[in-house]
Automatic annotation (TrEMBL):
<protein>
    <recommendedName>
        <fullName>DUF4105 domain-containing protein</fullName>
    </recommendedName>
</protein>
<feature type="signal peptide">
    <location>
        <begin position="1"/>
        <end position="20"/>
    </location>
</feature>
<keyword id="KW-0732">Signal</keyword>
Amino acid sequence: MKYYLFPLLLILIAIDFSFSQDKSPTETYYKLFDSYFNYKNYEVFNGLEYVDEFPELIRTKETNNKFYDSYDFIKGLIVYNGEPYYNLEIKYDLFNDHVLLKYLNKKINYLKLNSKMVSQFRLKEDKFVRLKNNLALNNFYRNGFFKEGYKGERFSLYVKYKKNKQEDLNQGRVVYIFEEYKFFFVCYMGALHRINSKKDMLKAFPFREKEIRTFYKNNSSLLKSSKEHFFIRLVKYLDTLNHINTNE
Protein backbone atom coordinates (compact mmCIF):
# COMPACT_ATOMS: atom_id res chain seq x y z
CA MET A 1 0.00 0.00 0.00
CA LYS A 2 1.07 3.61 -0.49
CA TYR A 3 1.41 5.61 2.71
CA TYR A 4 1.97 9.33 2.18
CA LEU A 5 1.42 12.57 4.09
CA PHE A 6 -2.05 14.11 4.10
CA PRO A 7 -0.92 17.63 3.03
CA LEU A 8 0.67 16.19 -0.09
CA LEU A 9 -2.59 14.42 -0.90
CA LEU A 10 -4.40 17.76 -0.85
CA ILE A 11 -1.82 19.31 -3.14
CA LEU A 12 -2.05 16.51 -5.69
CA ILE A 13 -5.83 16.48 -5.66
CA ALA A 14 -5.85 20.21 -6.30
CA ILE A 15 -3.41 19.85 -9.18
CA ASP A 16 -5.52 17.06 -10.65
CA PHE A 17 -8.46 19.41 -11.22
CA SER A 18 -6.38 21.52 -13.59
CA PHE A 19 -5.83 18.70 -16.08
CA SER A 20 -7.86 18.29 -19.26
CA GLN A 21 -10.73 15.84 -19.45
CA ASP A 22 -9.12 13.56 -22.04
CA LYS A 23 -7.52 11.53 -19.24
CA SER A 24 -9.44 9.71 -16.52
CA PRO A 25 -9.19 11.51 -13.14
CA THR A 26 -7.98 8.30 -11.48
CA GLU A 27 -5.16 7.72 -13.96
CA THR A 28 -4.04 11.36 -13.83
CA TYR A 29 -4.10 11.31 -10.04
CA TYR A 30 -1.94 8.19 -9.70
CA LYS A 31 0.57 9.42 -12.28
CA LEU A 32 0.92 12.68 -10.38
CA PHE A 33 1.12 10.83 -7.09
CA ASP A 34 3.86 8.51 -8.27
CA SER A 35 5.87 11.32 -9.87
CA TYR A 36 6.68 12.73 -6.42
CA PHE A 37 8.43 9.59 -5.24
CA ASN A 38 11.36 7.41 -6.21
CA TYR A 39 9.92 4.63 -8.37
CA LYS A 40 12.30 2.11 -6.80
CA ASN A 41 10.28 2.40 -3.59
CA TYR A 42 7.17 1.06 -5.28
CA GLU A 43 5.79 -2.14 -3.82
CA VAL A 44 5.56 -3.53 -7.34
CA PHE A 45 9.37 -3.77 -7.50
CA ASN A 46 9.25 -7.02 -5.58
CA GLY A 47 10.00 -10.30 -7.31
CA LEU A 48 12.62 -12.79 -8.37
CA GLU A 49 15.51 -11.91 -10.62
CA TYR A 50 14.75 -12.85 -14.22
CA VAL A 51 17.42 -14.22 -16.53
CA ASP A 52 16.49 -14.97 -20.15
CA GLU A 53 17.17 -18.65 -20.87
CA PHE A 54 17.36 -17.90 -24.62
CA PRO A 55 19.76 -14.92 -24.81
CA GLU A 56 21.19 -16.03 -28.16
CA LEU A 57 17.82 -15.53 -29.81
CA ILE A 58 18.04 -11.74 -29.91
CA ARG A 59 21.26 -11.97 -31.93
CA THR A 60 19.82 -14.24 -34.60
CA LYS A 61 16.10 -13.65 -35.04
CA GLU A 62 15.03 -10.37 -33.48
CA THR A 63 11.46 -10.68 -34.72
CA ASN A 64 11.01 -14.20 -33.37
CA ASN A 65 10.88 -14.37 -29.59
CA LYS A 66 8.82 -15.66 -26.70
CA PHE A 67 7.21 -12.33 -25.75
CA TYR A 68 3.90 -10.66 -26.49
CA ASP A 69 4.06 -8.08 -29.30
CA SER A 70 7.73 -7.17 -28.93
CA TYR A 71 11.04 -8.33 -27.48
CA ASP A 72 11.59 -4.82 -26.10
CA PHE A 73 10.15 -3.53 -22.86
CA ILE A 74 7.06 -1.37 -23.34
CA LYS A 75 5.69 1.38 -21.10
CA GLY A 76 2.55 0.08 -19.47
CA LEU A 77 0.32 -0.25 -16.43
CA ILE A 78 0.41 -2.92 -13.73
CA VAL A 79 -2.16 -3.36 -10.96
CA TYR A 80 -0.15 -5.02 -8.22
CA ASN A 81 -1.68 -5.95 -4.87
CA GLY A 82 -4.64 -3.75 -5.73
CA GLU A 83 -2.55 -0.66 -6.52
CA PRO A 84 -2.13 0.73 -10.08
CA TYR A 85 1.37 1.67 -11.25
CA TYR A 86 1.72 3.64 -14.49
CA ASN A 87 4.56 4.13 -16.98
CA LEU A 88 6.51 1.07 -15.90
CA GLU A 89 8.67 -0.78 -18.42
CA ILE A 90 7.18 -4.25 -18.74
CA LYS A 91 6.83 -7.18 -21.11
CA TYR A 92 4.89 -10.43 -21.08
CA ASP A 93 6.71 -13.75 -21.46
CA LEU A 94 4.25 -16.01 -23.30
CA PHE A 95 6.48 -19.09 -23.10
CA ASN A 96 6.60 -19.10 -19.29
CA ASP A 97 3.48 -16.98 -18.68
CA HIS A 98 5.27 -14.38 -16.55
CA VAL A 99 5.04 -10.60 -16.33
CA LEU A 100 8.50 -9.02 -16.34
CA LEU A 101 9.52 -5.64 -15.01
CA LYS A 102 12.62 -3.67 -15.96
CA TYR A 103 14.54 -2.77 -12.81
CA LEU A 104 18.13 -1.66 -13.20
CA ASN A 105 20.55 -1.59 -10.30
CA LYS A 106 24.05 -2.90 -9.63
CA LYS A 107 22.95 -6.52 -9.35
CA ILE A 108 19.58 -6.96 -11.07
CA ASN A 109 18.28 -5.95 -14.49
CA TYR A 110 14.84 -7.58 -14.69
CA LEU A 111 12.26 -8.86 -12.21
CA LYS A 112 9.76 -11.68 -12.58
CA LEU A 113 6.68 -10.56 -10.67
CA ASN A 114 4.60 -12.71 -8.35
CA SER A 115 1.72 -13.61 -10.67
CA LYS A 116 -0.77 -13.97 -7.82
CA MET A 117 -0.22 -10.31 -6.91
CA VAL A 118 -0.87 -9.03 -10.46
CA SER A 119 -4.59 -8.58 -11.13
CA GLN A 120 -4.16 -6.87 -14.50
CA PHE A 121 -1.65 -5.15 -16.75
CA ARG A 122 -1.71 -3.18 -20.00
CA LEU A 123 0.69 -3.19 -22.92
CA LYS A 124 -0.09 -0.33 -25.31
CA GLU A 125 -3.86 -0.63 -25.81
CA ASP A 126 -4.11 -4.28 -24.83
CA LYS A 127 -5.46 -5.21 -21.40
CA PHE A 128 -4.65 -8.49 -19.68
CA VAL A 129 -6.50 -9.68 -16.59
CA ARG A 130 -5.90 -12.54 -14.18
CA LEU A 131 -9.01 -14.70 -14.15
CA LYS A 132 -10.04 -17.20 -11.52
CA ASN A 133 -9.45 -20.77 -12.58
CA ASN A 134 -12.35 -23.09 -13.41
CA LEU A 135 -13.04 -26.19 -15.50
CA ALA A 136 -13.24 -24.27 -18.79
CA LEU A 137 -9.83 -22.64 -18.22
CA ASN A 138 -8.04 -25.45 -16.40
CA ASN A 139 -6.02 -26.83 -19.34
CA PHE A 140 -4.97 -23.33 -20.45
CA TYR A 141 -4.74 -21.47 -17.16
CA ARG A 142 -1.01 -21.48 -16.28
CA ASN A 143 -0.62 -18.22 -14.28
CA GLY A 144 -4.10 -17.03 -15.20
CA PHE A 145 -3.42 -14.10 -17.55
CA PHE A 146 -5.92 -13.61 -20.38
CA LYS A 147 -6.28 -10.76 -22.83
CA GLU A 148 -9.59 -8.96 -22.47
CA GLY A 149 -10.71 -8.82 -26.09
CA TYR A 150 -14.13 -7.38 -25.30
CA LYS A 151 -15.90 -6.67 -22.02
CA GLY A 152 -19.65 -6.35 -22.28
CA GLU A 153 -22.72 -6.34 -20.08
CA ARG A 154 -23.61 -9.98 -20.79
CA PHE A 155 -21.03 -11.25 -23.31
CA SER A 156 -17.26 -10.90 -22.98
CA LEU A 157 -14.31 -12.39 -24.83
CA TYR A 158 -10.98 -13.49 -23.38
CA VAL A 159 -7.94 -14.68 -25.30
CA LYS A 160 -5.18 -16.89 -23.91
CA TYR A 161 -1.85 -16.33 -25.64
CA LYS A 162 0.83 -18.99 -25.57
CA LYS A 163 4.14 -19.64 -27.32
CA ASN A 164 5.91 -22.96 -27.80
CA LYS A 165 9.49 -23.43 -28.95
CA GLN A 166 11.15 -25.56 -31.59
CA GLU A 167 14.85 -26.11 -32.17
CA ASP A 168 16.45 -24.95 -35.43
CA LEU A 169 19.85 -26.57 -36.11
CA ASN A 170 20.41 -25.10 -39.59
CA GLN A 171 22.73 -22.34 -38.37
CA GLY A 172 25.37 -24.64 -36.89
CA ARG A 173 24.05 -24.23 -33.36
CA VAL A 174 20.75 -24.45 -31.56
CA VAL A 175 18.41 -21.55 -32.27
CA TYR A 176 14.91 -21.56 -30.84
CA ILE A 177 11.94 -20.68 -33.02
CA PHE A 178 8.74 -19.68 -31.23
CA GLU A 179 5.21 -20.28 -32.50
CA GLU A 180 2.25 -18.35 -31.11
CA TYR A 181 -1.12 -19.89 -30.30
CA LYS A 182 -4.39 -18.30 -29.26
CA PHE A 183 -7.29 -19.85 -27.36
CA PHE A 184 -10.65 -18.11 -27.16
CA PHE A 185 -13.16 -18.06 -24.31
CA VAL A 186 -16.58 -16.42 -24.36
CA CYS A 187 -18.06 -15.46 -21.02
CA TYR A 188 -21.84 -15.26 -20.87
CA MET A 189 -23.53 -14.27 -17.62
CA GLY A 190 -20.52 -15.45 -15.62
CA ALA A 191 -20.07 -18.82 -17.39
CA LEU A 192 -17.00 -19.39 -19.59
CA HIS A 193 -17.09 -21.39 -22.84
CA ARG A 194 -14.08 -22.49 -24.89
CA ILE A 195 -14.74 -21.39 -28.48
CA ASN A 196 -12.83 -22.36 -31.59
CA SER A 197 -15.45 -22.67 -34.33
CA LYS A 198 -19.00 -21.92 -35.43
CA LYS A 199 -20.01 -25.32 -34.07
CA ASP A 200 -18.73 -24.32 -30.62
CA MET A 201 -20.64 -21.04 -30.73
CA LEU A 202 -23.88 -22.73 -31.75
CA LYS A 203 -23.51 -25.35 -29.03
CA ALA A 204 -22.82 -22.75 -26.34
CA PHE A 205 -25.48 -20.25 -27.44
CA PRO A 206 -28.30 -22.07 -29.27
CA PHE A 207 -30.71 -19.20 -28.53
CA ARG A 208 -28.64 -17.07 -30.96
CA GLU A 209 -28.34 -19.65 -33.73
CA LYS A 210 -29.81 -17.44 -36.46
CA GLU A 211 -27.64 -14.43 -35.58
CA ILE A 212 -24.48 -16.53 -35.29
CA ARG A 213 -25.00 -18.24 -38.65
CA THR A 214 -25.70 -14.91 -40.34
CA PHE A 215 -22.63 -13.30 -38.80
CA TYR A 216 -20.38 -16.13 -39.99
CA LYS A 217 -21.82 -15.87 -43.49
CA ASN A 218 -21.37 -12.11 -43.72
CA ASN A 219 -17.88 -11.97 -42.20
CA SER A 220 -16.05 -14.91 -43.76
CA SER A 221 -13.20 -12.72 -45.03
CA LEU A 222 -12.55 -11.32 -41.54
CA LEU A 223 -12.50 -14.85 -40.11
CA LYS A 224 -9.79 -15.81 -42.58
CA SER A 225 -7.67 -12.72 -41.97
CA SER A 226 -7.96 -12.47 -38.18
CA LYS A 227 -9.78 -14.98 -36.03
CA GLU A 228 -9.29 -12.82 -32.95
CA HIS A 229 -10.87 -9.71 -34.49
CA PHE A 230 -13.68 -11.88 -35.87
CA PHE A 231 -14.55 -13.22 -32.41
CA ILE A 232 -14.29 -9.74 -30.88
CA ARG A 233 -16.82 -8.38 -33.36
CA LEU A 234 -19.09 -11.42 -33.01
CA VAL A 235 -19.17 -11.25 -29.22
CA LYS A 236 -19.72 -7.50 -29.28
CA TYR A 237 -22.57 -7.99 -31.74
CA LEU A 238 -24.21 -10.65 -29.56
CA ASP A 239 -23.86 -8.42 -26.51
CA THR A 240 -25.73 -5.57 -28.19
CA LEU A 241 -28.74 -7.66 -29.19
CA ASN A 242 -31.95 -7.17 -27.29
CA HIS A 243 -33.41 -9.95 -25.21
CA ILE A 244 -35.70 -11.93 -27.51
CA ASN A 245 -35.74 -15.23 -25.68
CA THR A 246 -36.98 -15.81 -22.17
CA ASN A 247 -34.24 -18.41 -21.66
CA GLU A 248 -31.51 -15.79 -22.22
